[in-house]
Write a structure and sequence with these properties.
This protein is α/β, with parallel strands linked by helices and about 200 residues long. It has a single domain, classed as 3-Layer(aba) Sandwich (Lysozyme-like), CATH 3.40.80.10. About 15% of the residues lie in helices and about 20% in strands. The protein contains 4 helices and 12 strands, in the order βββββαββββββαβαα. Strands 3-7-6-11-5-12 form a 6-stranded mixed β-sheet. It is globular. The protein starts with a strand and ends in a 15-residue tail after the last helix.
Length: about 200
């Protein structure tokens, strides 16, 4: 059973909070029924540092690594990051609009940031993720479900095809699906088992 619980203000009890300034209000008609799964590591392929937190809080030293020059000035965030250890860090209340999906579309609805929760897994597109991350991700989704009308879980690659490739082929969708036990209709057609 999960130890996580989403409070009335959209903050997860049981997670570490690291507040990002990169968010805005959701549109009045927003229905938060989509969870978008991403992957991130800063610098790419390096884990355990504070680069992600610094990026999401606008404190990244752009000169600290050559890769940072490519993302200089970006102002982004996600609601949650799940570290390789399974630790969950929350940056934005689920009541607010985090800046994670960018140009995106899901089931005919544009601008997925309006109606979604963004969950970043510390990892690299194409690489595998840790068992603790799958456990934490499923626990997080189970904790969100009583408070949010979740109907879909998709990867960034599914809401921004051709532009984004995360979480990528190293993400084990069948493992998440089995752990959650939710109906197949919650998941992208591309990852569902054959009928």
């Amino acid at each position: 059973m999960t130890r996580l619980r989403l409070d009335d203000s959209g903050w997860l009890e049981g997670a570490r909070h690291c507040v990002s300034p990169n968010f805005g209000p959701r549109p009045a008609q927003a229905v938060v029924d989509l969870a978008v799964i991403h992957s991130i590591s800063l610098p790419p392929g390096q884990y355990g540092g504070d680069g992600i937190e610094r990026l999401f809080t606008n404190r990244l030293d752009w000169d600290a690594h050559p890769y940072y020059g490519e993302i200089r000035g970006m102002e982004v965030s996600a609601h949650f990051v799940i570290r390789r250890t399974g630790e969950i860090v929350q940056f934005v209340s689920t009541r607010d609009r985090a800046w994670h999906a960018g140009r995106s579309c899901w089931r005919g609805r544009e601008n997925c940031n309006d109606d979604s929760v963004g969950i970043e897994l510390e990892g690299l597109e194409g690489d595998t993720f840790e068992p603790a991350q799958y456990d934490a991700l499923s626990d997080l989704l189970i904790a969100l479900a009583p408070r949010l009308p979740l109907r879909w879980i998709a990867g960034h690659e599914h809401v921004a095809p051709g532009r984004k490739i995360d979480p990528g082929p190293g993400f084990d969708w069948p493992r998440l699906m089995a752990r959650l036990g939710w109906p197949d209709r919650y998941f992208p057609d591309q990852v569902r088992p054959p009928a």
